[in-house]
Amino acid sequence: MKNALMMAVIFVAGAELASAQDTYRDPYPYTSYYNEQWTGHSNLFMGFKNLDKDDWGTLDRQIEIAWLNDFRAKDWPVSMAIDFRIAFSGDTEDFGGTDIELDATTIELNIGVRKIFMEKTKIRPFVGAGLSLQRASASFEFGSASASESGVGIGYWMDAGVYIAMSRGFMLGLELSYSQAEVDMDGTDVQAGGFQVGFSLGGHF
Length: 205
Fold this sequence. Notes:
Shape: elongated
Oligomer: single chain
């Protein structure tokens, strides 16, 4: 509920800002068939992912990078969304004078739809949702010993945010997202998804 409320706040704020903007007209319109018929965004995302602390302990706060994409034919009401995310965390714990190195990685392939509003303004709010294929892995090294576990699961994702047009094709973005998928790691169900927030840089066509 908290995640959904935060997404709603971001979306409403973006819509309010967009309503105050003058229409953004590209002074150098593309003329190719591709851009006359299709539109979309491709962005590099950088931010953070929070995992379930009960499952991941001190590895619950991850650094995340992602490649976020959406595209549609200009007569479609919504865009197709294909996002790839990878997040990682690490920690060191002392055990009897010997360091234990802990690492965790989560990977998401998210496919679904994304709706971009007010596409002719500089500030363009969006929301999205779909299916998420996720993989989680964890490993430790203790002296000369090491071990690792991994698992794969299917769940869902949803996001909300805003694109900000800086020039003809250059966009800044802010995104708040949430994903959920349980994976089996050594016989235990672990939550691989989580709450994600960050900014993006990319292009618009």
